[in-house]
Amino acid sequence: MKGCAGEFMTRLTIRPTAFHYGLQTGSDDDCIVLDGEEVVGRIYRTRTSPESWTWALSPLRAPRFPYGDAGSREAAIAAFQAAFDMNEANSEEGTTLLA
Question: Which structural domain range is residue 21 located in?
Answer without folding.
Answer: 7-92
